[in-house]
Design brief:
This protein has 322 residues and is α+β, with helices and mostly antiparallel strands. It is 47% helix and 9% strand. A six-stranded antiparallel sheet has the order 1-3-4-2-7-8. A two-stranded antiparallel sheet has the order 5-6. A hairpin with a 3-residue loop joins strand 5 and strand 6 (282-283). Helix 6 (142-166) packs antiparallel against helix 7.
């Protein structure tokens, strides 16, 4: 092999001599060198360096090139990294009664057909989530809402008893008229407390008969995963109640007070053929209920006289026609 000029062979030879010189003096600067100052100066500088906050300096010098470069780099990294809202999410992941993210909807429907899946502790419901929904349960304060709501219900019951006692013997209609504004106030206060405690989910409720439950559930499940409906859905398994007892399918939305979204989901249910006509062109109504009311056990015929549902499809669809 041939070398010319100051090639690898020559540099290797001179490098050995330089390294020997460097090693002999423990480096070009001895430990006694005053390059960094005496012991007092070094201690003072080290203390100053340890207390230096670069972020304060950067905040006070926003136009320096390194600061601008760091800011641009942070923006690029944020843009290239998916935000939490863009990540797929499944609150039923790992649960045997829910659809898994890597499970095709068709396989899920075959694994858990509601017509023949028997209700049990493992299968209290059959669940499916919209994996693209931004709703997260982390801010939900169910215990806090329940505490406030129970106090509101107790206060109403006391007022109700006072009115009924003071108006004993009077026409029932007179007592009812006296209670109407109090009930409306109670409903508004309960919903406001639910909003404050982030307990805002609600659902449209479908009641297919058993012979049609698999078909309707397949439509709802597919549309939920495809982001056509709301945040999630569930269906009741077989409770061995016979063929004439309807099953329940719940189609969830994020916020009961978001009327535009509630209407949108209802409109899609109509388009999917799940809200049908009955008799001579009459709408077969479905109802929307806030989960907050479900948690409190507010059903039809409740002791406070509250309406169990917030919205009726007939009302919203009729309003849309006008």
């Amino acid at each position: 092999m041939f070398f010319c000029g100051c090639g690898p062979a020559e540099s290797t030879m001179t490098g050995t001599h330089d390294e020997a010189d460097f090693a002999a003096t423990d480096g070009y600067l001895s430990s006694d060198s005053s390059f960094y100052g005496d012991a007092e100066d070094r201690a003072r500088l080290e203390e100053k360096a340890s207390s230096f906050d670069p972020t304060t300096y950067w905040d006070n010098h926003p136009h320096l090139l390194p600061v601008l470069a760091a800011a641009n780099r942070a923006k690029l990294e944020a843009a290239s990294s998916p935000s939490p809202s863009k990540l797929l999410y499944n609150p039923y992941e790992g649960s045997i009664c829910g659809r898994q993210l890597n499970e095709p909807v068709e396989d899920f429907l075959k694994r858990l057909p509601p017509l023949t899946t028997v209700v049990s502790s493992q299968y209290p419901w059959i669940f499916i989530a919209n994996p693209h929904a931004t709703s997260r349960p982390t801010d939900r304060d169910q215990a806090g809402f329940t505490k406030v709501a129970e106090e509101l219900l107790e206060t109403f019951s006391e007022k109700k008893n006072e009115i009924e006692t003071s108006m004993a013997g009077k026409a029932k209609g007179s007592v009812t008229r006296k209670l109407v504004p109090l009930r409306k106030e109670l409903e508004n206060d309960l919903l406001a407390a639910a909003k404050k405690k982030h307990c805002t989910s609600g659902k449209w409720m479908l009641f297919p008969y058993p012979e049609d439950v698999n078909r309707q559930w397949a439509i709802v499940a597919t549309a939920t995963v495809n982001r056509e409906l709301g945040t999630a859905a569930k269906v009741a398994p077989d409770e061995n109640k016979g063929d004439r007892v309807p099953r329940l399918i719940c189609v969830y939305t994020k916020d009961f007070s978001d009327l535009d979204d509630v209407k949108r989901v209802l409109g899609r249910l109509v388009e999917l053929g799940l809200v049908k006509k009955k008799g001579s062109g009459e709408e077969r109504g479905i109802y929307y209920k806030a989960d907050a009311f479900t948690e409190l056990g507010i059903n039809s015929g409740n002791e406070w006289g509250l309406k169990a549902s917030l919205y009726a499809s007939r009302d919203l669809l009729e309003a849309r026609k006008k």
